[in-house]
């Protein structure tokens, strides 16, 4: 279904009124058959371009949350999907929701219908929907799923913001420094050379750095471009992901943020699946499918394999060396006391709150530090450029 093209149609219904819409179909003939089944006379059928940016987790989460609200209000599943389709601003989402509603009317399970759209609904969505169908609590499962996805999205955005801020400030400072070294400093140097007077050591050092930048700028840009192209090309390569994640986790501040965000995601999914009645091994499969980085997926795979061979959960996680002692202790306690779901929920909440606090503290700390660093760099350049002015008086008097 996902590989089918999207078609926009316009026609007349049985009352002679104008009607229009979008639908997914393999070819134009299928669109004609579908419109004929709806008793619509087609006037125009145009193939539409599918915008991949509309298939994002935020839109999927909003749809699940709205669907949970409609189900709790007493609407049937197909009615809720049809109502959401009528109100959705995206044409391709309208066609998707109507296609899901039509498959439900044909007797296909909702989870099976969602499985046909892996780019829109991740495996965790399918697992939770299937659990809701089996337990008869589809509205509750949809609501918990939406809450979990929103919490993870907010946490990920806070972590990215905390890590992005120093990079932006340093990039701006670097651009300012390069502009001053490239355009401003040569003009001052030309003026000072006309007076034939020795320059201060600080000015000579800055000018030497500027000359070095002039000579090495082109090779530097070439190396930077090659590095960026290689990083983009091998972004999803397993070995590169493993190396990048290993190096990132060793960074003092960024490593703690990344580890906390990933542990929060892992334990949130495990808690969600445990509370929904899904087996722990199946929950680990859902965790593995929601992780984008190959390094973390391998860790979950190793833990799942060890548990399959009879190892306790806490020992299987301990062998991976990716989980903190607190995680292992609480999971061991949960296994022994039979309250594993509660311990997983506590770990999820702890890591989420801890990571949020670290991100906020880092942003608060970095703001004055980055301003101080930027001020020192730019201040040094300004002093280096204007320091020879104080020696110009002696030079001018000597010339006279």
Report on this model:
The chain is mainly alpha-helical and 400 residues long. Helices cover 76% and strands 6% of the residues. The protein has helices at residues 28-37, 57-72, 77-87, 91-105, 110-115, 123-135, 138-193, 201-233, 238-250, 252-275, 280-290, 294-308, 313-320, 325-337, 340-386, 389-399, and strands at 6-12, 18-24, 41-48. Strands 2-1-3 form a three-stranded antiparallel β-sheet. Helix 7 runs antiparallel to helix 10 (252-275). The radius of gyration is 30 Å and the shape is extended. The chain starts with 5 loop residues before the first strand and ends with a helix. The model has no long low-confidence stretch (mean pLDDT 82). It is a multi-pass membrane protein. Keywords: Cell inner membrane, Cell membrane, Membrane, Transmembrane, Transmembrane helix, Transport. It is found in: Cell inner membrane.
Break the fold down into its secondary structure elements and pairings:
Blueprint: E1 6-12, E2 18-24, H1 28-37, E3 41-48, H2 57-72, H3 77-87, H4 91-105, H5 110-115, H6 123-135, H7 138-193, H8 201-233, H9 238-250, H10 252-275, H11 280-290, H12 294-308, H13 313-320, H14 325-337, H15 340-386, H16 389-399
Antiparallel strand pairs: 1-2, 1-3
Helix pairs in contact: 2-3, 2-7, 3-4, 6-7, 7-8, 7-10, 7-15, 8-15, 9-10, 10-11, 10-15, 11-12, 12-13, 13-14, 14-15
Classified by CATH, the class of the largest domain is Mainly Alpha
User: Under CATH, the topology of the largest domain is which?
Assistant: Receptor-associated Protein
Which radius of gyration do the C-alpha atoms yield? 30 Å
Low-confidence sequence ranges: none
Distance between the termini: 89 Å
Kindly estimate the percentage of residues that lie in beta strands according to DSSP.
Answer: 5-15%
User: In the residues, how many domains can be counted?
Assistant: 3
Order of helices and strands: EEHEHHHHHHHHHHHHHHH
State the helicity in percent bands: over 70%
* Helix/strand/pairing category: mainly alpha
- Shape assignment: extended
Could you say what the CATH architecture of the largest domain is?
Up-down Bundle
Tell me about the biggest sheet?
3 strands, antiparallel
Instruction: Output the CATH homologous superfamily of the largest domain.
Output: Type II secretion system (T2SS), domain F
Domain Type II secretion system protein GspF: 65-186, 268-388
Membrane topology: Multi-pass membrane protein
Transmembrane segments: 167-192, 212-231, 362-387
Subcellular location: Cell inner membrane
